[in-house]
Specification:
By secondary structure, the protein is α/β, with parallel strands linked by helices. Helix 1 packs antiparallel against helix 3, helix 18 crosses helix 22 and helix 21 runs antiparallel to helix 22.
């Protein structure tokens, strides 16, 4: 259902949105839910007749219908006067091709008579004048008042999430000028671009920067981030760096099978790969592991049963480590087993190898019969088993030195066995997948990466009985834990959606609400926050923010200062005003948290480090509500103090350092000595900012924070995280 608290306008479904819903082969209730959801999503963005820029976060399960959702939203955009739609679709060619072809089919791009509703192009090139003309013509037609709405085609562009491709389309749009032209931008698998992978190096990753540049080239647009992995670190990070204005949670259809189905207690669909079957450091044995052969037999029995029942093709995924030599050997094992079993079943019934093969397949049949009541008799399945073996294609799904991974026409075989690593980790849909064999661990342990490996989720309720997943024990445990976290996060997102609040507000609850304790653990252990959440000093790096942000931050700090009692600091006595500070002690740490959750940050490095600090403080308050801090007003009586910022508006270190006397000794001990050793210390600084030491002032009295965390507090929290408490 649409949420009136988020909606800015009410889009009206027309021929395109209704057409997508009709072609999706959904029942009437599912069609209504799809259209209602799409109206809510697009209606929460810009009204094309009014303009502006809006960002939305749309969250679904892995392989639960996110593509159908944004395809319907695209159709709805066309129905309501958007002349331009851009889909940023994956970072691999096969994923882009998959999305491009799916969009063309579901939108019926080549259907109909007369003038087309859609003009579709993939990976525009900046130097090709044809593409420039195409965009100019689309805009001109959209502005032409003599044309009826159905005579104004919408330009649908799909682009690879890659440096040069994004740069090319941005170059064209900038050259043409898009002021006043409403656009819809879909970022599929948005968590790949939303997080700046160089945040802790003080830089922006290339794709992240290109995506921001694309948005800058579109003054009037709705930007929709579609993802299935809304981990708490992601939400906290994008709360500042991309600032979603609204959240929408997609509900899967009745046929969807996800983590709650596969990873419930004592699930019959999941088996553990014995440790002996997972060779250390890819030291591959000569013979295939017994558990792999068992998985292959289950797949072929399920395929044969599906052929008998007219259920169509089936696929298996072997998902080992990333090294190609492992893929190559695994593919050889699968092909050799298939050929050997086919030869055995072609032998006489008295042949011992045939008897052994039949006995092994009977064990696989008995296993599947525990969960699939409609299995044909074993004898009938055996009649179709040779056909299943002959008509299964084994493919090594990686680049193997080629520029891109192979593309698959699923209709070319009744059975498929894909062997691949990273190429099937994210976004790629394995058609009619029934058996997954994953002899690999959790890697670096990132929950989002783990969940994206779950290619076995999807709309497979009708053949769930023949589905099996083989996992290493550690990754099985990780999936079980993740299912709980995912449901927790979806509940939070639904609450945000229904209340109409923004993710900035959610950050406050993350820090302060005791019920979100598990989420805070995931934030503090996340690689984007962890690097700066330990003890010692953390400084605000982003100094030259927008004037609105500086004004808001100044107001927050004024409010804090006015609520405290300050006294002159006596730890160092100086006649110089620029070396005189005020200090307030026994300040409730809760008061510091209240100020910091509202303090705006625009440098991604600050978002990461201050989020780690906030969560640390929140946990400290949870354990000891009476815990206190110290607040210093640094040189409040001095005026005209200035600091030089870099071209991007950042400052690496604004704290005054130690100064020495000419004859020895210390003239000033340095700002970092003004701290209380056993509690959190917050220093409030103000400086005039300039880009060089003699240049003009570009910001006056800009507020800057420096925060010190004592080792005992940081250690206590990190130990608690590591112990999983």
């Amino acid at each position: 259902m649409s949420n009136p608290k988020q909606a800015k306008w009410i889009p009206v479904p027309g021929e395109q949105a209704n057409g997508v819903a009709e072609r999706a082969n959904l029942d009437d209730d599912a069609k209504k839910r799809l259209l209602s959801s799409s109206i809510s999503i697009l209606g929460s963005g810009i009204n094309p007749s009014q303009g502006g820029m809006v960002t939305g976060l749309v969250v679904g399960y892995v392989q639960s219908g996110k593509t159908l959702s944004f395809t319907t939203v695209i159709g709805l955009a066309r129905d309501n006067g958007f002349p331009l739609v851009i889909v940023v679709a994956g970072n691999k060619d096969n994923l882009l091709t998959q999305s491009h072809e799916r969009l063309a089919k579901d939108l019926d791009v080549d259907g109909g008579i007369g003038l087309p509703a859609w003009i579709m192009a993939k990976n525009l090139r900046a130097q090709n004048t044809q593409y420039e003309q195409l965009i100019r013509q689309t805009i001109a037609n959209w502005k032409d008042s003599t044309r009826d709405p159905d005579e104004k085609p919408t330009l649908l562009l799909t682009v690879l999430k890659q440096n040069q491709r994004l740069g090319a389309i941005t170059t064209l749009l900038t050259k043409i000028g898009m002021a006043g032209i409403p656009a819809l931008v879909i970022d599929d698998e948005a968590d790949q671009a939303s997080l700046n992978t160089k945040v802790n190096q003080g830089d922006e990753s290339t794709t992240y920067r290109r995506l921001k540049e694309l948005r800058d080239a579109l003054p009037t647009h709705t930007f929709l981030q579609y993802t299935a992995t809304p981990q708490a670190p992601l939400l906290v990070n994008i709360a500042d760096t991309l600032s979603p204005n609204f959240v929408h949670v997609l509900e899967p259809g009745t046929g969807y099978v996800g983590g709650e189905d596969f990873f419930k207690a004592n699930s019959p669909h999941v088996a553990v790969i014995p440790a002996a079957d997972i060779p250390p450091n890819n030291a591959l044995p000569v013979d295939p592991p017994p558990s792999l052969l068992n998985a292959l037999r289950l797949f072929f029995v399920g395929l044969a049963a599906s052929i008998v029942n007219g259920g169509g093709r089936r696929s298996m995924l072997i998902h080992p480590a990333r090294e190609r030599v492992v893929h190559q050997e695994s593919a050889k094992w699968a092909s050799a087993a298939k050929d050997e079993w086919n030869a055995c079943l072609s032998a006489k019934e008295t042949d011992q190898d045939r008897k052994d093969a039949v006995a092994d397949f009977k064990m696989a049949y008995d296993e599947l019969s525990k969960t699939e009541a409609s299995l044909p008799s074993f004898n009938v399945v055996m009649e179709k088993l040779p056909r299943a073996l002959r008509n299964t294609t084994v493919i090594e799904f990686n680049t193997r030195g080629s520029p891109k991974t192979p593309e698959i026409n699923w209709r070319h075989a009744e059975g498929w066995i894909l062997v691949g690593g990273q190429a099937v980790d994210r976004g790629f849909t394995v058609d009619s997948l029934t058996v997954t064999y994953m002899p690999r661990g959790t890697g670096v342990g990132n929950a989002d990466t783990l969940q994206q490996r779950a290619r076995f989720f999807g709309y497979k309720r009708r053949y769930l009985g023949i589905c099996r997943i083989f996992l290493e024990q550690g990754i099985k445990d990780a999936f079980e834990d993740y299912v709980e976290h995912e449901q927790f996060m979806r509940t939070e997102l639904k609450r945000i959606e229904s209340s109409g609040e923004e993710l900035r507000s959610w950050r406050r609850r993350l820090v302060l609400d005791p019920s979100l304790h598990p989420c805070r653990r995931s934030v503090i252990s996340d690689r984007y926050s962890r690097a700066r959440s330990g003890s010692g000093w953390s400084q605000q790096r982003g100094a030259l923010m927008t004037s609105q942000a500086r004004t808001a931050n100044s107001a927050e700090l004024v409010s804090l200062v006015s609520s405290l009692t300050f006294k002159p600091d006596t730890s160092y006595v100086s006649a110089e005003i620029a070396q005189q500070h005020l200090v307030a002690v026994n300040v409730p740490l809760k008061k510091i948290v209240d100020t910091l959750v509202n303090y705006q940050l625009q440098d991604p490095r600050d978002t990461a480090s201050f989020t780690g600090l906030l969560v640390t403080f929140g946990e400290a308050v949870r354990r000891d509500p009476s815990i206190t801090a110290a607040v210093y007003q640094m040189r409040p009586g001095a005026t005209g103090l200035r600091r030089t910022c870099q071209d991007d508006g950042s400052i690496d270190n604004f704290q005054q350092g130690r100064t020495a006397l000419a004859g020895g000794g210390t003239a000033y001990p340095g700002d970092n000595t003004f701290q209380l050793p056993d509690c959190v210390t917050v220093q409030l600084h103000r400086y005039d900012l300039a880009f060089d030491s003699k240049g003009p002032i570009v910001a006056s009295a800009a507020p800057l924070l420096a925060i010190h965390v004592p080792p005992a507090l940081a250690k206590d929290w990190l130990v608690q995280v590591q112990q999983g408490q």
